[in-house]
Amino acid sequence: MSKPTILNVIKSVFAAAVGIQSDKNRQRDFEHGNLSTYIIVGIIFTVLFVALLALLVAKITG
Fold first, then answer.
1. Separation between Cα atoms, residue 12 and residue 20, nearest integer Å
2. What is the CA radius of gyration of the chain?
3. SS3 for 3?
4. Which of 4, 41, 43, 49 could make an S-S bridge to 8, C-beta 3.0–4.6 Å?
5. Where are the beta strands (DSSP E) in the chain?
6. Cβ(6)–Cβ(34) under 8 Å?
7. Pfam family example for this protein (predicted)?
8. From CA 26, how far away is CA 1, in angstroms rounded?
9. Contact indicator for 42, 13 with CB cutoff of 8 Å
10. Are 40 and 13 in contact, with CB atoms under 8 Å apart?
11. Would you kindly state where each structural domain of the chain is located, as residue ranges?
12. For 15-57, how does the pLDDT look when each residue is reduced to its tens digit (9 = 90+)?
């Protein structure tokens, strides 16, 4: 297996956040991935998710 691309990292972070990460992808991530890349993408995903929720709540509550 080769090193995961940035798109693979984004997919893995999203799948892990939702709880649907496959065992094959998890093994690829741990064996060939760079921890700092996953941490950075995870932080960005979390910030975007929280911001989206805040915007949604602000729009609903007016």
1. 9
2. 14
3. coil
4. 4
5. none
6. no
7. DUF2970
8. 13
9. yes
10. no
11. 6-61
12. 999 999 989 989 999 999 999 999 999 999 999 999 999 999 9
CA separation, residue 36 to residues 33, 39, 55, 61, 62 (Å):
9, 5, 29, 37, 39
Distance CA 15, CA 22 (A): 8
The whole-angstrom separation of Cα 61 and Cα 53 is 12
Tokens of 9: 């990292």
- Here the tokens at position 28 are 């690829």
Q: What pLDDT band is residue 61 in, cutting at 50, 70 and 90?
A: very high
Helix (H/G/I), strand (E/B), else coil: 36: helix
Could you tell me how many residues make up the chain?
62
Distance CA 18, CA 40 (A): 17
Structure tokens at 30: 């741990």
